[in-house]
Amino acid sequence: MATILIIDDDDAFRDGLAETVRDLGHMPLEARSGEQAFERVHGQAPPDCIFLDFRLPDRDGLAVLEALRSTASLQHVPVVMLTGYATSDNTIGAMRLGAFEHLTKPVGRDEIAALLARILATRADGPAPQATRTFAHETPSHEPQLLGISEAMRDVQKRLGRAAGTNSTVLITGETGTGKEVAARVLHRASPRASGPFVAVNCAAIPADLLESELFGHGKGAFTGAHTERRGRFEEAHGGTLFLDEVGDMPLAMQAKLLRVLQERQITPLGTNRTVAVDVRVVAATHRDLPAMVAAGTFRQDLVYRLNVIPLHMPPLRERVADILPLAEHFLASVTGPSGTAGKHLSADAQRLLVSFTWPGNVRELANAIERANALAPAALLTREDFAFLFDQGGGCAAAIPASFIDLPLNDALAQLERALIARALALAGGNRAEAARRLGISRQSLYTRLAHFGLSDADPGA
């Protein structure tokens, strides 16, 4: 039995709502004003839920909600706002202050029952233990961190540590969103060049005819619009690290010039005859399959040799499942409300969903999902429903090909898609394999075979 506080000056509505709450097996507390409500709960255990009307005799409901949120014992109690006339202002105001839900009167019994069931299930689940979910031993830092406890990430961290003590060129490979630039920044910070500049260049974002000037600089009058001499990124990175992101998108002609610079450690600014010696450690990154591009004639093999002195592969998040929950809790801990209130937590069903999702956008997608759920969830505990958008294909995008699939061989893309569909079906079925098989239109035995093939056998311990 839960305690439900009802704050409303409409006696008939308040009595009717109290009767409904009582019929559902809970204990109602009634108050006609904000002041009376605080008197009712003073010195008592906080209620499990509060229904709060917008129009009250002493102050408006938003002011009462704000006072609730500033009271330590009540700041996490779910509050359902009630109004006879919903407007954009009162709806947005309520949700901004952390209301769980916003209802327009009259409210039916079934709607109240469903809402209370949702609220009380959320509160009963409770936050997951945090000791094993966060990177407790990591030193807090505002700098990018390459976090992970999985074997795959431990291997990356070890190789990065060994590479940091050298000046050798590093090639970082991995899918979009796996943290290639973070790895490059951590490598720079751990190297003897840490006091020097870190200069990042996205080779895919700069037009081909401007890339040479961007990297090597240009002299006055080198081309139309070159009114002054300009230093290039290689010169700017002198004594430090130059990060060439998406180097796989570099045009062939530019690849030849980059190869020469890597060999001679000298640059020639565009439109000049002078050479400039540069002391730069080059770290390159790409999500593309360079050996396949070499075979297709779109990337120089000799440049691959020059870039790939120390290879560093960033594993996709689906291959480092042990890191998903610690990363999720880390991102939650780093996101606070506008008033600096305590962060939210993941329920058990949300945790099961996160570890079973395939994360095509990898760590970047996980971080964005956590920030979105944290911002929009009405309660302090994030549930499966708060992450429903992960499976939402709305907006006419169902036929779009995910970016991570575009450069994969057909069989690999089909395997990833099949794995994602199975994980989605399991998540939507709450881990029930029979229901997941029904959703997929396959037999349970066929599902078991696929689970074993994709290593998903332990993804749903409750199945």
TrEMBL record:
- 4-aspartylphosphate modification sites are 53
Question: Ranges for the Response regulatory domain?
Answer: 3-120
Keywords, comma-separated and alphabetical: ATP-binding, DNA-binding, Nucleotide-binding, Phosphoprotein, Transcription, Transcription regulation
Check the record and name the InterPro entries matching this protein.
AAA+_ATPase (IPR003593), AAA_lid_NorR (IPR058031), CheY-like_superfamily (IPR011006), Homeodomain-like_sf (IPR009057), HTH_Fis (IPR002197), P-loop_NTPase (IPR027417), Sig_transdc_resp-reg_receiver (IPR001789), Sigma_54_int (IPR002078)
A molecular function (GO) held by this record is:
ATP binding
SMART domains noted in UniProt: AAA (SM00382), REC (SM00448)
Q: Where does the signal sequence lie?
A: none
Any Pfam family matching the protein: HTH_8
Biological process annotations from GO? phosphorelay signal transduction system; regulation of DNA-templated transcription
Ranges where the Sigma-54 factor interaction domain occurs = 146-375
Q: What is this protein called?
A: DNA-binding NtrC family response regulator
